[in-house]
Amino acid sequence: SQTIHQWPATLVQPVGSPLSLECTVEGTSNPNLYWYRQAAGRGLQLLFYSVGIGQISSEVPQNLSASRPQDRQFILSSKKLLLSDSGFYLCAWSQESNQPQHFGDGTRLSIL
Amino acid sequence: GNSVTQMEGPVTLSEEAFLTINCTYTATGYPSLFWYVQYPGEGLQLLLKATKADDKGSNKGFEATYRKETTSFHLEKGSVQVSDSAVYFCALKNNNNDMRFGAGTRLTVKP
């Protein structure tokens, strides 16, 4: 069966520090991969999605970037974090067509 | 473009009450429709889905019917429990992998 892993579960970082959140999927090949941000009490905002290795689409201009160095690995990064980057970050995967997305457990990021 | 509009929360119910969370959508073509549930501090879990008109998705006592004529996918449960307290998201996905989520509805069930 397929599984998705996200880490770390929680992270506290100072303003201006770098960021690297990692997401890996097991049990499937060539998945579509997604990064979302969920601000406190709010809905989901799609940040990036990827349909293949090295292919990244950005949905909103921001301080963050994403990379997909391997088929089942998706990384969310920042060179310098801002206070506004605080939130709950969710990674998800799906196969093509009308199949649903499956989510990781999320990373709660607090910027001080 | 594609979009999902769901009932604003929060919704507070007593245990064993009937639940309805409204969801309507706008989409081109024939999207698949989903309900996700998010328990406190966790990621989203797929609750149920429907892939074509008149399909009924069901899971854990929850149901939703894909109504193309009213572009709706309302979530219902006949008797809620305290453990159902969570945030519920309605979502749609088209063939082009474009997935859209509603803003979420927070449900609190009191004993």
What tags apply to this protein structure?
heterodimer; A: mainly beta; seven-stranded mixed β-sheet; four-stranded antiparallel β-sheet; 11 strands; B: 111 residues; mainly beta; six-stranded mixed β-sheet
Structural account:
The complex is a heterodimer of chains A (112) and B (111). Chain A is 0% helix and 57% strand. Chain A has strands at 3-7, 10-13, 19-26, 32-38, 44-52, 55-58, 65-70, 73-78, 87-94, 102-103, 107-111. By secondary structure, chain A is mainly β. Chain A is built from no helices and eleven strands. In chain A, strand 9 (87-94) and strand 10 (102-103) form a beta hairpin. The termini of chain A are far apart. The relative contact order of chain A is 0.33. Chain A is globular, with a radius of gyration of 13 Å. With 111 residues, chain B is mostly beta strands. Helices cover 0% and strands 51% of the residues of chain B. Chain B is built from no helices and twelve strands. Chain B is globular and about 45 Å long.
